[in-house]
Design brief:
This protein starts with 9 loop residues before the first helix and ends with a strand. The protein has two domains: about 100 residues, Immunoglobulin-like, CATH 2.60.40; about 120 residues, Immunoglobulin-like, CATH 2.60.40.1120. It is mainly beta. The protein contains two helices and 17 strands. It is globular and about 50 Å long. The protein is about 10% helix and about 45% strand.
C-alpha cells in the first residue's frame, strides 16, 4: 500500500489557533498532525465471517471518530501517524472488543476478531472460571507468514495480571498445556482494567501486528471491564 501521510486540514488548524488564543496558552505546539489510513477488517473469530455493521471507534487519542464495517467487513479510519492508537469495536451481537496499533508513516491494514458473548462464556467454562464483570478477557493469536499457527508452536506468554495463560488446542482452551500448540492461541481471564505488557518466549519469535509494539517479545495492551482485548502477532519464525 502506498504512502499516505496527511495533516489536519486548514480549517482544523484555524480552529486550534482560535482555541489557543481564547485560552491564552503560552504555546500550542505543532498543530500539523501527520495522519495515515487504518483499514481494519473485522471478522467473527469462530467462522471468520465479516462482522458487517460493527462500529470501530478511535478511543485514544480523542477526535478521530468512528467508522462502520462495510459488507466486506472493513472499517477505514484516519489516525495519527507514528504513535500508539487505541480502538474499540462494538456490535449488538458481540462482546465489545478493544485493541491497539502502533502506527508508522504509511497506511496500515490489519485483521481484528470479535466474539459472541456465549463464546466468551464457553471459554471461561472451559478453563473453569466464572466471568468477573469488573475485569476483561485477553485473546492472543500468533501466526506465521502463511497465516497459520504452526509457526508459533512452542511459545510461552506472560502478562503478570489476571488468570492464565491458557493455551488452545483444536480451538479449545486446555488448562494442562504449558505452551502454544499448532493453534498458536492463548488467553488470559479476569484481567484488571488498565495498561499491561504481554511478553513472549519459547520456540518462536513474532512481530506485533495488533497491539502496541514494545520491541522484541513485548506487546502493550489495554484492558477494559467486560470487554475482549484482541492481540495479533505475525510473521512468527523459529528462534
Amino acid at each position: 500500500m502506498g504512502m499516505m501521510r496527511r495533516t489536519r486540514p486548514h480549517g482544523a488548524r484555524a480552529l486550534v489557533g482560535a482555541l489557543c488564543a481564547v485560552s491564552a496558552m503560552a504555546a500550542c505546539g505543532d498543530d500539523e498532525v501527520p495522519t495515515v489510513e487504518a483499514r481494519i477488517l473485522v471478522t467473527e473469530v469462530t467462522g471468520g465471517e465479516p462482522d458487517v455493521g460493527a462500529e470501530v471507534c478511535v478511543t485514544e487519542p480523542a477526535g478521530y471518530g468512528c467508522a462502520i464495517a462495510d459488507t466486506a467487513g472493513y472499517a477505514t479510519l484516519t489516525v495519527p501517524a507514528e504513535r500508539d492508537v487505541a480502538f474499540r469495536a462494538t456490535h449488538p451481537d458481540r462482546t465489545p472488543t478493544v485493541f491497539s496499533l502502533t502506527t508508522r508513516d504509511t497506511d496500515v491494514e490489519v485483521k481484528v476478531d470479535t466474539a459472541e458473548p456465549t463464546l466468551v462464556q464457553i471459554l471461561l467454562l472451559g478453563i473453569g472460571l466464572d466471568a468477573n464483570p469488573s475485569a476483561g478477557l485477553v485473546l492472543v493469536l500468533a501466526r506465521g507468514a502463511t497465516g497459520g499457527g504452526a509457526d508459533a508452536q512452542g511459545m510461552t506468554f506472560a502478562l503478570g495480571a489476571g488468570d492464565g495463560p491458557f493455551y488452545f488446542e483444536s480451538s479449545q482452551p486446555m488448562p494442562a498445556l504449558t505452551e502454544t500448540s499448532m493453534d498458536g492461541a492463548v488467553a488470559f481471564a479476569n484481567v484488571p482494567p488498565g495498561s499491561h505488557t504481554l511478553t513472549a518466549a519459547g520456540a518462536a519469535r513474532c512481530e506485533t501486528v495488533v497491539g502496541s509494539d514494545r520491541g522484541a517479545d513485548s506487546t502493550g495492551i489495554r484492558v477494559e471491564a467486560g470487554a475482549l482485548t484482541f492481540v495479533r502477532l505475525g510473521n512468527c519464525v523459529p528462534r
